[in-house]
Amino acid sequence: MTRPSTTTDGLHAPALAFGDPRVMALLSALVLFTHVLEGFSNRQLVKLVARLWDQPYSSRQATYDLRRLRRKALITRMPHSHRYQLTPFGRRAAVLFTKAHTRVLAPGFALLDPLLPPDLSQRTPLARAWNQLDHALNDFVDRQLLAA
Fold first, then answer.
1. β-strand 5-6 against 12-13: which pairing, if any?
2. pLDDT of residue 22
3. 80 and 68 share one domain
């Protein structure tokens, strides 16, 4: 999913970059239960992603994203319609990616923010461990530069 690939038909399947705000908004829109039974359309996807991404999101962007999702086997087109449905694999992947990003990466990166006041950045084990690693790497690089 996160790397470009080729479908069995030989079609290019562009990557869905994990952590990219547009991709994360797209995957978050897919796991909403509003379209479980009836599927969703391009127009509905535009509204959902624009709201979640907090950026303008056009129908052209949605068309491109729908193509990426279809070629990665995350969605299928419903027969005789312009509506799409999540595949079982798509549901698992979208839930995993959105949960990992929302519950682990986003809070973790927030704790590692260099602009965070020092008293706050020392409160968590993750921030303390990161600061220790950062200082150790800086010391190592400084020693290597002195030796050269």
1. antiparallel
2. 94
3. yes
